[in-house]
Amino acid sequence: MRHAEKGRVLVTGASGFIGRHLCTQLSRLGHEVVAVSRSGGFDITSDTLPLQGVTQVIHLAARTSVPASWQEPVAFHWVNAHGTLRLLEQCRSAACPVLHVSAYIYGRPERMPIAEDAPIAANNPYAFSKFAAEQACGFYSEHWGLPVSIVRPFNVYGPGQDSRFLIPFIVEQALDPARERIELLDLAPRRDYIYISDLIDAIIAVAQAAERGTFNIGSGTSDSVAEVASKVAALAGTHKPVVAVGVPRQNEIADVRADISRIRQVTGWEPRVSLDEGLRRVVEMARPC
């Protein structure tokens, strides 16, 4: 998939939120997409990848819920770390390049914006499992010369995302006439939100880049939960109050903001969708017909 050449691209986790958008865009660009996913009967921890003729693997398959990872740390590590190790070994045998989609693994940042060489401080079992997967990627790259790049998305959002995630959860409450207010656990944390189409463009840009490496993907700005909720309420045309009804999550991080200068320099990628525009799209897509 070098330099925008058309190829046969295998996407793991293809039925997930990011995977669906990625497969659609790859097909639009003329690539042949081989889609594998748990919902389609593929198990990354035991099944063999269909790599014949594949020119690039984009690895999305993972367990992803931070709260659930506290309940099932071994299961998360098994899928996210061991599953990635198995994928890397198969790709090594097939001499097939890999783009691994990782996660935010910096914990509480020492300084902002957060660059790729900032200290890793995985502060939950999910992040720990994704860091272990990154270490496996580095090992295969260093010792076997497997072409591997890593992207670290910050807070991804967009139409079709599961309501377990913050923004669709806010939108669901804002649009529900039975709800008198928007209830959230904690209004203070600030996050760097990246719209799904911008993430997809970044993934494809890194897959096509001549230079391998690790790349943050974010907007370069941060907004608080309260600010996001207020924006959503305004877009939904509601005056519902936004209230905090819980306590801060375990190991909560106050603020994160990505340094995206590396991906800019290597690929020319820029985020195009502002938070205001992205939230508008999510609200409009979620409105009842």
Task: Characterise this structure.
- The chain has helices at 17-28, 66-71, 73-94, 125-144, 166-175, 196-208, 225-236, 261-267, 275-286, and strands at residues 8-12, 32-36, 56-59, 98-101, 148-153, 155-157, 182-184, 190-191, 193-195, 214-217, 223-224, 242-244.
- The chain is of the alpha/beta class.
- The chain has a domain at 6-155 and 195-218 and 259-272: Rossmann fold, CATH 3.40.50.
- The strands form four sheets. The chain has a six-stranded parallel beta sheet, with helices on both faces. It has a two-stranded parallel sheet with strand order 6-9.
- Strand 4, helix 4 (125-144) and strand 5 form a beta-alpha-beta unit.
- The mean pLDDT is 96.
Which tags fit this structure?
6-stranded parallel β-sheet, 39% helix, two-stranded parallel ribbon, globular, 289 residues, 12 strands, 15% strand
Overall average pLDDT: 96
User: What's the CATH first level of the domain at 6-155 and 195-218 and 259-272?
Assistant: Alpha Beta
Helix/strand/pairing class, anyone? alpha/beta
For this structure, the quaternary state is single chain
Strand order of the biggest β-sheet: 2-1-3-4-5-10
| Number of continuous helical runs | 9
How widely separated are the two ends?
Answer: 40 Å
Q: What is the radius of gyration? A: 19 Å
Summarize the biggest pleated sheet.
6 strands, parallel
Low-confidence stretches: none
What share of residues is helical? 25-40%
